[in-house]
Amino acid sequence: MQEADKLNIEPEENIAKAGDLGREMHAFIGQMYPLCRSITGAGFRETLSLVGRHIPLEIHEVPTGTPVFDWTVPKEWNIRDAYVKNSDGQRVIDFRKSNLHVVGYSIPIRATLSLAELKDHLFTLPEQPEWIPYRTSYYQETWGFCLSHNELLKMKDDRYEVCIDSSLEPGHLTYGEYYLPGEEENEVLISCHACHPSLCNDNLSSVALVTFLAKHLSTGPRRYSYRFLFIPGTIGSITWLCLNESGVHRIRHGLVAACTGDPGKSTYKKSRRGDAEIDKAVAHVLKHSGQDYEIVDFSPYGYDERQYGSPGFDLPVGCLMRTPHGRYPEYHTSADDLAFVRPESLADSFGKYLAVLNILENNRTYLNLNPKCEPQLGKRGLYRLMGGDLETGFDQMSMLWVLNLSDGGHSLLDIAERAGYEFNMIKNAAKALRENGLLMDTEQ
Ligand code: ZN
Question: Are residues 137 and 60 in the same domain?
Fold first, then answer.
C-alpha cells in the first residue's frame, strides 16, 4: 500500500512561495514590534493574542509566587508611560517613542532629580552612540532609563522630572502553547522566547517563524505530534518544564528558535547530547543547503536549550538560529529593528526548519527483505523507474545504498550520510523499494 510522505516538500513550489512567506512573516513582526513585552504582563499577552490570530493558541496563566524548581514565578510587571522631562517641561526621554527607553521591570517612580543624581539610572552605549541599549532588571527591584549616548550628551545640568508609571504586583506569568497531534504521541518541541520589547531578530523573528511553521504543519499529515511554546525566556521554560514534567518523556526531538531573521549565515547549536537525531538532521540540512553555515557545540548558556538540556531532563533540543546572540552589534539595541530582519532571511530559516522536520518525519529504519545478494531490480521494473527520469527523485546508486544498509541498524538519514546523498534522494529510493515489497519498516 502506498503511504503518503510526511511533509513532502516540493523545492520549486517552495522557492515560489518563499518570497510571499518572508514578506508575510516580516509584516507580522511589524505588528508585534510596537508592543512593550517583558517576561510577564500585558505586552506579552497582547503578543500571544496576535499569534492566536494565526493558530489556536492555548494561553496559560501561572500565579506569582508559584514555586518552579529552584525558582519562583515573579511579580507581574505592567507599564503605561514613562518619561524624563527637563525644566521646560519637554520630554527628553520618552517611553512613547521607544519602549526600550525604560529598563524592563522598573519599579514605579516619581521624583525630581539633578542630572548627576539621574545619571546613576541612565544607560547608554558609548561605542554605538546612536543606539538605545536594551536592559532589564528582573530580579532586583530598581528603575532606570536607556537612551542613545548622543542624547545623553545633549542633556544639560538641570532639574529633571522623572516618571515611570509602572506596576510590579502579584499577578501571573503567561505563556502560549499549541499542541498539534500526529499519528504518534511522540513529540517534536519547538520553543521560542517572546519576552523582549521592540527587538526584532532577538525574539520577534522566531515568534513569527514558529507561528508560520505551526500554521503550515497543521495543514498536512504528520507522524509526530508537535508542541509549540511561546514563553518568556528562562523563567518560562523552567515553569513549563516544572508544570509538564510528567509528559516530557514524549519529546523525541526539539528546537529552540531564536535570531532567525538577520542576514547572517545559519548557525546550529547542538543539543547537550551532541549526537541526537535532531543534531544529525540539522547538520545534514545545513551541509546540503549550498550555503555557508556553522555548527557549534552545546554550552550551558544561551536560550532555553540550557533548561531543556539541564541534566535532570537532558532533552534532545538544539538551537537553530542565524547569527547567535551577542555576535552582531545590533544585538540588544534599538538597531535590532524592522530593517535588520529580512524577509528573505526569514524565508530561508523557515525552509531550513521545514527541511529538518521533513527528515525527522521520514527518517525510518528498514529491513531489506531480500538480503542475500542484490535483488533483481529489472524484473521489478525498478530500473525503468529510474531510467534518467528525474521526476522519481532517485538514482540507481541511492537504491543500492538503501538496499545494502537496510539491515535494521541504519536509518535513512544514516544511509544518506554514509552514501553522501541528500536525504530526499534516499527517502525516494526507499519509497520505491517499499512499494515493490523489498523493504519492511522495523518500527511497524
Ligand atoms: Zn535577548
Answer: no
The boundaries of the domain holding residue 431 are: 365-441
332 Cα: distance to centroid of ligand 1 (angstroms): 6
CATH number at residue 156: 3.50.30.90
Phi, psi for 111 (deg, rounded to 5)? -160, 165
One-character DSSP codes across 197-211: SS-IIIIIHHHHHHH
Q: CA-CA distance, 428 to 388, in Å (whole number)?
A: 14
Considering the domain boundaries, does residue 358 fall inside one?
Answer: yes
* pLDDT bracket for residue 13 (50, 70, 90): low
- What whole-number distance in Å separates Cα of residue 314 and Cα of residue 440? 32
CA–CA separation, 408 and 423 (whole Å): 18
**Could you tell me if 139 and 161 lie in one domain?**
yes
For the whole model, what pTM was predicted? 0.95
Kindly state whether residue 313 falls inside one of the protein's structural domains.
yes
Bridge partners, residue 164, by sequence: 82, 109
Residue 395 located in a structural domain: yes
* CA 198 – ligand 1 centroid, Å: 11
pLDDT digit string, tens, across residues 222-278: 999 999 999 999 999 999 999 999 999 999 999 999 999 999 999 999 999 999 999
Same domain, 307 and 271: yes
State in Å: Cα 68 to ligand 1 middle: 22
Interatomic CA distance for residues 33 and 14, integer angstroms? 27
Which one of 137, 152, 169 terminates a domain? 169
For residue 276, the CA-to-ligand 1 centroid distance in Å is: 26
Final residue in a domain of this structure, among 169, 199, 219: 169
